[in-house]
Amino acid sequence: MPVEQRTKDHVLGLIERVQAKGLRFRDEQITMAHGAGGKATLTLIEGLLAPAFGLTELADAAVVGDVAVTTDSFVVKPIRFPGGSIGELAVNGTVNDLAVGGARPLALTLSLILEEGLPADDLRAEVEAIAAAAVAAGVTIVGGDTKVVERGRCDSMYVTTTGVGRVDPRAQLSPGSARPGDLILVSGPIGEHGTAIMLARGEFELEAPVESDTRSLWPAVDVLLEAAGPSLRCLRDATRGGVASVLNEIARASGVAVTVRETDVPVPAAGTGTSQSDPFRKGPCRWPTSRSSC
Amino acid sequence: MPVEQRTKDHVLGLIERVQAKGLRFRDEQITMAHGAGGKATLTLIEGLLAPAFGLTELADAAVVGDVAVTTDSFVVKPIRFPGGSIGELAVNGTVNDLAVGGARPLALTLSLILEEGLPADDLRAEVEAIAAAAVAAGVTIVGGDTKVVERGRCDSMYVTTTGVGRVDPRAQLSPGSARPGDLILVSGPIGEHGTAIMLARGEFELEAPVESDTRSLWPAVDVLLEAAGPSLRCLRDATRGGVASVLNEIARASGVAVTVRETDVPVPAAGTGTSQSDPFRKGPCRWPTSRSSC
């Protein structure tokens, strides 16, 4: 048996073993790891949340009739970073979960949790960013909610957006539909958003001109559906956990192995030192409509 | 002119003056008052959020096609209290915003912000409470998101629920549709939930057997729509700000005055000392889909 075949068999065996035993949530308390997009997150989702709510498929947007709905909380800090801000991210993240779910984004709701003492100018800036991002993405903000919590009980602001979209009849997308021989297309350089956030937090002792690439993906998805329609298996907006998380998710859902040639992955030069090692060390991280801010 | 007529004219004059001048958000920072359901909240909503997003009508649920959607963040503390918990409240609150908007609740999404260090048993209890409340309300939880924030950056957990419902053709409801001569029906004792929370927080130096009355209102709304259908003007689930807030909202939206006979308002005996004075001192507090946890 050639080496490549033995490697594939080994990987497929690992996938089957993980799938067979299922995940049980046995931790005694919540740690940062449960939100980091790795195995602890997956265990929380697949071992506690999904079974409690009777959820099965791990997709970004759930379908109710011909309507798709998806929700996400954004807790990114700092709230403003090169290339974007929490408000813009909260719109694009949710719009994109609809888009990659094969639904045309129509409307958003917005729930704000604000920290006592938040400067009004910071709030005003985010409200403007949200409004501008919604216009750019072609969605209407139809309503929302605002809560204020005591100083320190929030990090400036947390934003939860829920998107409602119309399922596009051209789309037949599911993470469980990948088949041997399928190709993976990466639409642009990876790791830019995550690297921009980490740099803005000062987590590395370096400076680099890396900007978040947050934007609405519906125009690209629309063109892709028109060109390739039903031959597309699955689309994803790689967020928390990165491209590796997306590939893990598809591999687990479809029961296939994925071959990644590292040299074929578009890593931008400025981010090489940080993002090159990062996107591939994390595991899958989603429950049905999860998407992360960073 | 009789005294009652002069009072009515005075109140109508006040309403017109408030409506005419509009509200401007001029505060320099966010304070707890912006979340308390009074004038500061209204100013934040009507003076900043609603105009930025092009929102006009202040209803609990927004309509997209024949689908109604509403969202709410729940930040109540303590997370468990006599008669309920944050998870149960997050389901019922959102289901009820659909119901009083004249929509049959179908599905919920759920976004959890968890505090690092949260005991797993507390999370498990809330997940079970959410699942049980969803079954009781006849809604499916179709997906969600989970984030973890550093210890202290959240109060155990914050829960955001978004509800999707089907607009019921029997319902023709709007806060702006009240007319002179309409009657206000209060379906049960007021102030129980708010009083239960304040007692659980130890905000009063007294103990009383008051329990939150959190539950799904769709069965009651369903019966009401069947019996009275299009002759109903507006329904509300009185939450943050209480019944007074609801009446203010309707009065402002419809340009009418509301006569309240205090002795006709059902105040439960055990809550008299606290809730009797409370529900009527607060102003309106909503933007289109707002609903509060306490």
Description:
Two copies of one chain form a homodimer. Helices cover 35% and strands 17% of the residues of chain A. The first copy, chain A, is α+β, with helices and mostly antiparallel strands and 294 residues long. In chain A, the strands form two sheets. Chain A has a five-stranded mixed sheet, with helices on one face. In chain A, helix 3 runs parallel beside helix 4 (120-137). The longest helix of chain A is centred in the first third of the chain and has 19 residues, at 3-21. Chains A and B meet through helix 2, strand 1, strand 2, strand 5 and helix 4 of A and helix 2, strand 1, strand 2, strand 5 and helix 4 of B.
| Biggest interface | A-B, 81 and 81 residues
Number of H/I helices of chain A: 8
Strand order of the largest sheet of chain A: 1-2-7-5-6
Cα Rg of chain A: 19 Å
Instruction: List the helices and strands of chain A in order.
Output: HHEEEEHEHEEHHHH
| Quaternary structure | homodimer
The portion of residues forming beta strands of chain A comes to 15-25%
Query: Based on helices, strands and strand pairing, what is the structural class of chain A?
Result: alpha+beta
How would you sum up the major sheet of chain A? 5 strands, mixed
Number of strands of chain A: 7
Mean of residue pLDDT of chain A? Answer: 84
End-to-end C-alpha gap of chain A: 41 Å
Low-confidence parts of chain A, pLDDT < 50 over ≥5 residues?
271-294
Shape of chain A: globular
Helical content of chain A (DSSP H or I, runs of 4+): 25-40%
